[in-house]
Design brief:
- Helices cover 45% and strands 18% of the residues.
- The chain has 6 helices and 6 strands.
- The strands form 3 sheets. It has a two-stranded parallel sheet. A two-stranded antiparallel sheet has the order 2-3. Strands 5-6 form a two-stranded antiparallel ribbon.
- The radius of gyration is 17 Å and the shape is elongated.
């Protein structure tokens, strides 16, 4: 953890313009790191402009300096219909078409374990899509698709 904190302080100085290095902000980023070490996912809440994006981007960069690869997949679930997000099943042809989130989730579940994948749902939380993610965030680590298929998430 000290290595991550040192890397975090370095990258905050290196950014143009440099970020203000407050102990409170560093503490919040380290809390995010700790939460991601313990859980498969977490939610960062806050008003616009309060540093949520800066926190995860700073952590990603700091982890990179420490040798950990992090691949980010950023999407805004409220910018698309549920079918575009999770996928659709055509009852006539019996064909499944992945949605944006499903496609990203497949990539993350098939990736090498030495690369961490962060699926970042940026935007307002909406019950229409967050309910579907409950099983991923609990201890089951499964994303159940509308077609009944289950994607199991690993430690990365």
């Amino acid at each position: 953890r000290n290595e991550v904190e040192e890397a975090l302080r370095e990258i905050m100085k290196e950014q143009k313009p440099p970020l203000e290095m407050s102990n409170h902000q560093i503490s919040k980023v380290l809390q995010l790191h700790s939460a991601l070490d313990q859980r498969i996912g977490c939610v960062i809440f806050g008003e616009p402009g309060t540093g949520k994006t800066t926190a995860w981007r700073s952590l990603k960069t700091a982890l990179g300096k420490c040798g950990m690869l992090v691949d980010c997949h950023i999407l805004n679930p409220k910018s698309m219909y549920r079918e575009e997000l999770f996928g659709t099943f055509n009852a006539d042809t019996r064909e499944w078409t992945d949605g944006v989130l499903t496609n990203v989730a497949r990539k993350a579940t098939k990736a090498e374990e030495n690369t961490h994948h962060w699926i970042i749902c940026d935007g307002d939380i909406d019950p229409n899509w967050i309910e579907q993610l409950n099983s991923v965030l609990d201890d089951n680590k499964l994303l159940t698709l509308p077609n009944g298929e289950r994607l199991a998430f690993g430690p990365n």
